[in-house]
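Recap from last week: sequence in, structure out.
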Amino acid sequence: MWAIPAWAEQLLLAVIGLSGGVAVAAGLFSFIVELGVVADFADRTHTGEQIMFYEDCVALGGIMGNLIYVFRIGLPLGTPFLAMTGLFAGIFVGCWAMALAEILNVFPVFMRRLKIVRYISAFVISMALGKGLGMLVFFGQGW
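Predicted structure tokens:
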């Protein structure tokens, strides 16, 4: 029976981990593009000519976030940077969830079934306030 050298085992684990990470990231970014979040933002802001830049920024943000997380890179930028990062991450996840719901036509069907079409703006504001309150309760536990 022969033993695998430690460096070869580490190299194999690195290749497997990198391959798995690339596959998951590719799936996530293709899902984001398929939902049309980036294209919808470009359309709403009338900056469609910059869509390649936006997609590059999304990919670069994902890459940088993963590098910071995997290699535990400390960013001593303080609480304001942490708050800004949390705000942008929350906006992104909220928009992603709304884009998914829009694709699935959840809200139009729900509103028609309950016959509450006149109060759509109140429901959207209520969901935003609920999301913000939930964030404060979840993240405010350490205060």
